[in-house]
Amino acid sequence: MRLVLLGPPGSGKGTQAKFLEKVYGLKHLSTGELLRLAISEKTKLGNAVADIINSGQLVSDDLIIELVSDRIDKLDGKAAFVLDGCPRTKGQAEALEVMLSEKSKNLDLVVQMAVDNDQIVKRISGRINCANCAASYHTEFKKPKIDNVCDFCGGDSFERRADDSEVSVRRRLDVYERETAPLVQFYENKGILQAIDAMAPVGEVSKELGALIANHTS
Ligand code: AP5
Known about the structure:
By secondary structure, the protein is of the alpha/beta class.
């Protein structure tokens, strides 16, 4: 199963991709996480993209496709994956199709995660990440089991993402509407699009995704 989660910032792509990795063994490929890792490690790529990301704009299509292609090459040949945050433009969607077909692969399913803008602002303004392992939480909707202690690594320091400022979130939403939302039609035309209600609580969204995967593989 090769799957894309398509949705605006804060729609829960990262949260659900981690669920799909844990429960269904789909490798989670997040372009945002790969880019943030490059920034924190101060690699050449990280230095080149830091300002672009923090201001909520898009990194170039060529760079993103190269990054994703490299990651796919590192997976087992038959590995199943979930793409979180890619494609984000028509150029990326077309280049992804070509790149996958060159590796004798294709996408099985694209899941549109619909959430309204008020909910997005609530989710992003409450998002915190463990400063040690980057696990994602929400101050209201997804608290750590023990106050201020990361469920995964026991870290006790949390931070906010540099691109979660109000100005940057507004720009990311504008960019999503202009560049990424048209991909809904793109994948509908290819007959592989399914929409889910991503406004529901995390567990319900996970169930809906699980049902889609079960239908697809049965
Ligand atoms: P990226 O990291 O992909 O950010 P994004 O798309 O803006 O998405 P987010 O990570 O903000 O949200 P999410 O949908 O993953 O939601 P989450 O699960 O965290 O990209 C960052 C930047 O990198 C881009 O702006 C761009 O600059 C660059 N970039 C990345 N990919 C690129 C590409 N392909 N091309 C060009 N540039 C690229 O959830 C959010 C919060 O809500 C969390 O606190 C969570 O706990 C909570 N939550 C989740 N689900 C629910 C729910 N159902 N109910 C209540 N709360 C929930």
